[in-house]
Q: What sequence folds into this?
């Protein structure tokens, strides 16, 4: 397998990670593009590590962390400081959140996550614990689940409640979802796309978002329908079958960015 082929197979996962860090796909993709440009300029960065994925994530991390959280940022290669991505600088995740996502969302071992962040394993564990405490204090909310498969819905309900959230209800169809959202607006929506009666969870979400804004996580066996349809923002995508840790990580990150955005809006008003 060529270097380009090896890198290409890891790009969807790097884009997912970048999106979770930045809070939007365009912002995350700008940093992924900068990583690829740096790789083209110096391909040797992949030769010093047995794992292409770990080397790629290490390079991304160096570029990500080259942007200062305070004062004037040092703009990463390939990023125009006049573009909207720079307006997300205040949202850049601190080191604890990077550690949390590498382990919970990306599924890296502690050893590999520590290599990506250039720290030791005890430090990584400390950072993950710090992030967990931070997120737990931030994100409790009401959740609407749109899922027609009973056992999956039960799994999601248990997972959500285990994280300290309240489930408003479980909808199996487009009409049930709309009815539940009218009773009380959720703080986040977990939605399948293909529903029991042939209706679309994507259509239901888009209809809801015409009247209120809320982050959405689509959990589906048909990710191509999300990619080709009218996609709401902010929205995240998890393919079935899913790992509970992945749902937990994405749910936490979606709510964290939503809360931070609202805080900034209040300060600006």
A:
């Amino acid at each position: 397998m060529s270097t380009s082929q090896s890198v290409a197979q890891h790009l969807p996962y790097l884009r997912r990670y970048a999106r979770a860090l930045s809070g939007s796909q365009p912002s995350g993709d700008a940093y992924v593009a900068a990583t690829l440009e740096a790789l083209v300029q110096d391909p040797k960065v992949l030769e010093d590590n047995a794992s292409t994925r770990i080397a790629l994530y290490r390079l991304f991390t160096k570029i990500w962390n080259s942007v200062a959280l305070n004062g004037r940022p040092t703009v990463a290669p390939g990023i125009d400081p006049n573009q909207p991505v720079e307006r997300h600088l205040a949202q850049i995740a601190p080191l604890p959140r990077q550690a949390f996502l590498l382990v919970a969302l990306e599924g890296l071992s502690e050893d590999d996550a520590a290599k990506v962040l250039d720290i030791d394993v005890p430090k990584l564990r400390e950072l993950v614990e710090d992030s967990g405490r931070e997120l737990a204090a931030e994100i409790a909310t009401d959740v609407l689940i749109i899922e027609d498969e009973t056992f999956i819905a039960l799994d999601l309900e248990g997972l959500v409640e285990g994280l300290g959230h309240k489930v408003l209800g479980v909808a199996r169809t487009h009409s049930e979802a709309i009815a539940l959202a009218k009773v009380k607006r959720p703080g986040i929506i977990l939605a399948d796309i293909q529903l029991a009666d042939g209706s679309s969870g994507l259509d239901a979400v888009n209809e809801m978002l015409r009247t209120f804004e809320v982050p959405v996580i689509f959990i589906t066996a048909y990710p191509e329908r999300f990619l080709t349809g009218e996609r709401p923002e902010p929205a995240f995508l998890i393919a079935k079958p899913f790992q509970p840790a992945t749902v937990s990580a994405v749910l936490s990150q979606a709510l964290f960015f939503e809360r931070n955005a609202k805080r900034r809006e209040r300060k600006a008003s």
